[in-house]
Amino acid sequence: MGFYFAQLLTGLANASSLFLIACGLSIIFGVTRIVNFAHGSLYMLGAYIAYTLVTTIHAGPFGFWASVLLSAAAVALVGAVIEILILRRIYRAPELFQLVATFGVLLIIQDATLAIWGAEDLLGPRAPGLDRAVRIFGEPIPEYDLALIVIGPVVLGLITLVFRKTRWGVLVRAATQDREMVGALGVNQRWLFTSAFMLGAFLAGLGGALQVPRESVSLLMDLSVIGEAFVVVVIGGMGSVGGAFVAAIIISVLNAFGVLVFPQISLILPFLVMAIVLVVRPYGLFGSPASAHGAPPVPEAPMRPLNQAGIVAMTLVVVAFAALPVVDDGFILVLAVDLFVAVLFAASLHLIMGVGGMVSFGHAAYFGLGAYAAALAVKTLGLPMLPAMLFGPLAAALGAAVFGWFCVRLSGVYLAMLTLAAAQILWGVTFQWQSVTGGDDGILGVWPASWASREVYFYLALAVTVVGLALIRRIANSPFGYTLRGGRDSPTRAEAIGIDLKAHQWLGFIIAGALAGVAGVLFAFAKGSVFPETLAIGHSIDALIMVLLGGVQSLLGPLFGATAFVLIEDWVTRLDYWRFIFGAIILLICIAAPDGIAGGLSRLWRLVRPGTPRSGRPA
Amino acid sequence: MADDLLAVSGLNTYYGGAHILSDVAFAIGGNEVVALLGRNGAGKSTTIKSVMGLVRPRSGSVVYQGEEIAGDEPYRVCRRGIGYVPEERRVFSELTVEENLEVGRRPPRADASEWTPERLYALFPNLAERRRHPAGRMSGGEQQMLTIARTLMGNPRLVLLDEPSEGIAPLIVEQMAMVIKELKREGLAVLISEQNLHFARIVSDRAVIIEKGAVRFTGTFADLDANPDIAQATLAL
């Protein structure tokens, strides 16, 4: 009895810190519609700053709590800088650009933190005055946990008070529903957005600062918390503060008891709960469909099939690649195969995103499924390379069929979050199912058949990629592709003319999954090994960056994007502080070319050759 | 005219590649009620949104009180004294009536009458009873009243009313007509977009008829009656 009660209290204490982070994320999303990937970084910054303050100022309980509040305020200032310098320029960009931009911010903050505080984990002191444990039902409960349990509801109460009783709060709630209307009523949204972002950052910083007495401060804090914070926001309903509170409690308490039954469950439990909630309530527990109002979307220029010149150009590119082994049979071939894998992966994501209009934050799941299936076919079933390769797309298609069935029932950010949850669940399974997947150690020794030399494998990969791309192109320009695009542009109209849109989207999801699986297979044999990272969030984001770098609105986009990504990554990762540089490059591209490399090039082309017709969206 | 409160000329607005407004031009005097008439899809809402800055016209001029405001952001346009009442009401459904009014509140203006919640509750008695109710739970007519009241809280000099009579009960339409006349009495200027010629005739001084994004007629209702074929060609269903 006492033990379970203690477990409950631990859960509630965790819920409080989770609530602080998630609630800031939710407020920011509600007002600005930005899914702030850098929110975990703000939390981490709060912890580092608090560590420095707490260990510098030794002034008992007062000094501790003052440090905590000061840290949160400092993070709020950092938030203001981020909002004013970066986000303000991209509010009109497609929401995925905003996500990628905040990911760039995450990378920059990670390296900035590394530069300032070093790579070592830092262990802060306990909170003065609250450093002991009290016995409740015979179990020792840290006093600090009890304080946290109080702080959560107090913050909820304060925020509710501000939201109900101040003009600012009323404006924030109004903007969460219909920000354009708020603007038309004379409210300067810039100021509102900056202040809402600052409040969100303050809460994240507060959450981080309050963690200092509980856990060591490390560079892993940002990504470790962001997944769970997303889950809480989505379960509670994006933009709902009360929802974030309830969801934080549900997740943390379930976690506290779940670990008793199955110790590793904390890796996937939140995502499992989220998947269930979203299937039952597509806008979370307390969410409502986001206001449909806003600037009328600029209709996209229809994608055109490649013309004669385009086909010639693409053929030349393929021929040039095919001639590569003449020039070099070493490193360049390896890099080229990496490039093929990336192009196919990005193009498959583009099929559901650009053509199908379904944003996936978890496309790596199907890449990873393909890679693992092929690797297991070799290692466990003892199959030769070619038959084993077939298992990849099959497994990926199967996985996409299962998860896609749920995903196509949602739309927008919620769909994206469910895809993220699906990928995270699969990642958790591969990570933990040691006996089959090898867990963290991965599966090693998945080399190509002996007849497939580096050169032969290069040609195989080239052929598979070309066929895959041709297939995607064919699909995009088939009646099926038109149906998907119609559904992307106007779901209601598509359904009104008798199209079973969900069935089409589901099929599109499965095809894209299978193609990502093919990319995974090529990857597995090229590297000779498979690790859980192939399914991780970071890898899904890589694919998103490639698609967005290239431009969502062009079928050639993924080609440019993947090429740029692979080349930049290959160059940059050799440098110190490569995250900082990479993040800065991402931000630069997001701000300078919100229509991607393909769009940016065509704008540049129009600049050089005025008189050529505009094809993309107006700049 | 030099003493026009608002003068729109040569306005061209596009949605992507679609040319919605072509060379729209009209003017509103300081205490005038002008009806912008036209069928569904003629470009009435787009005209109003272009004035308000909610869509950016590609070319043309919008002069308000002698200053060019085309391309200004909506909040700046509002702060100059132009109030916007959207077509689909767009009340903040989760906020109470009182809170909806609070969102619209702006400082009083020297050249416009000052509205307070109390004055608005007197004008719209239904809202007074429901001041603490979430706006989303009210009837369509009450929500329509609320959007007008919310805009008036900004003490506008010119009110842009987008299809105020659309989809509401006849009794409320009558109340709406009274409100528009009251605004004129207060010295305000009003631009209402309408499909209902009868309603427009009751409340407004002049008509501007727009068809397929271009102005087809400008003049008084007497002028319009003298040329029945114009109304037949541009408004009849």
TrEMBL record, chain A:
<feature type="transmembrane region" description="Helical">
    <location>
        <begin position="330"/>
        <end position="352"/>
    </location>
</feature>
<comment type="similarity">
    <text>Belongs to the binding-protein-dependent transport system permease family. LivHM subfamily.</text>
</comment>
<keyword id="KW-0812">Transmembrane</keyword>
<dbReference type="InterPro" id="IPR001851">
    <property type="entry name" value="ABC_transp_permease"/>
</dbReference>
<feature type="transmembrane region" description="Helical">
    <location>
        <begin position="268"/>
        <end position="286"/>
    </location>
</feature>
<protein>
    <submittedName>
        <fullName>ABC transporter permease</fullName>
    </submittedName>
</protein>
<dbReference type="GO" id="GO:0005886">
    <property type="term" value="C:plasma membrane"/>
</dbReference>
<feature type="transmembrane region" description="Helical">
    <location>
        <begin position="65"/>
        <end position="87"/>
    </location>
</feature>
<keyword id="KW-1133">Transmembrane helix</keyword>
<feature type="transmembrane region" description="Helical">
    <location>
        <begin position="191"/>
        <end position="210"/>
    </location>
</feature>
<dbReference type="GO" id="GO:0006865">
    <property type="term" value="P:amino acid transport"/>
</dbReference>
<keyword id="KW-0813">Transport</keyword>
<feature type="transmembrane region" description="Helical">
    <location>
        <begin position="580"/>
        <end position="601"/>
    </location>
</feature>
<feature type="transmembrane region" description="Helical">
    <location>
        <begin position="12"/>
        <end position="35"/>
    </location>
</feature>
<feature type="transmembrane region" description="Helical">
    <location>
        <begin position="545"/>
        <end position="568"/>
    </location>
</feature>
<dbReference type="GO" id="GO:0015658">
    <property type="term" value="F:branched-chain amino acid transmembrane transporter activity"/>
</dbReference>
<feature type="transmembrane region" description="Helical">
    <location>
        <begin position="146"/>
        <end position="163"/>
    </location>
</feature>
<feature type="transmembrane region" description="Helical">
    <location>
        <begin position="456"/>
        <end position="476"/>
    </location>
</feature>
<feature type="transmembrane region" description="Helical">
    <location>
        <begin position="388"/>
        <end position="408"/>
    </location>
</feature>
<dbReference type="Pfam" id="PF02653">
    <property type="entry name" value="BPD_transp_2"/>
</dbReference>
<keyword id="KW-0029">Amino-acid transport</keyword>
<dbReference type="InterPro" id="IPR043428">
    <property type="entry name" value="LivM-like"/>
</dbReference>
From TrEMBL, chain B:
<keyword id="KW-0067">ATP-binding</keyword>
<dbReference type="InterPro" id="IPR017871">
    <property type="entry name" value="ABC_transporter-like_CS"/>
</dbReference>
<comment type="similarity">
    <text>Belongs to the ABC transporter superfamily.</text>
</comment>
<keyword id="KW-0547">Nucleotide-binding</keyword>
<dbReference type="Pfam" id="PF00005">
    <property type="entry name" value="ABC_tran"/>
</dbReference>
<dbReference type="InterPro" id="IPR003593">
    <property type="entry name" value="AAA+_ATPase"/>
</dbReference>
<protein>
    <submittedName>
        <fullName>ABC transporter ATP-binding protein</fullName>
    </submittedName>
</protein>
<keyword id="KW-0813">Transport</keyword>
<dbReference type="InterPro" id="IPR052156">
    <property type="entry name" value="BCAA_Transport_ATP-bd_LivF"/>
</dbReference>
<dbReference type="InterPro" id="IPR027417">
    <property type="entry name" value="P-loop_NTPase"/>
</dbReference>
<dbReference type="GO" id="GO:0005524">
    <property type="term" value="F:ATP binding"/>
</dbReference>
<dbReference type="InterPro" id="IPR003439">
    <property type="entry name" value="ABC_transporter-like_ATP-bd"/>
</dbReference>
<keyword id="KW-0029">Amino-acid transport</keyword>
<dbReference type="GO" id="GO:0015807">
    <property type="term" value="P:L-amino acid transport"/>
</dbReference>
<dbReference type="GO" id="GO:0016887">
    <property type="term" value="F:ATP hydrolysis activity"/>
</dbReference>
<feature type="domain" description="ABC transporter">
    <location>
        <begin position="6"/>
        <end position="237"/>
    </location>
</feature>
<dbReference type="GO" id="GO:0015658">
    <property type="term" value="F:branched-chain amino acid transmembrane transporter activity"/>
</dbReference>
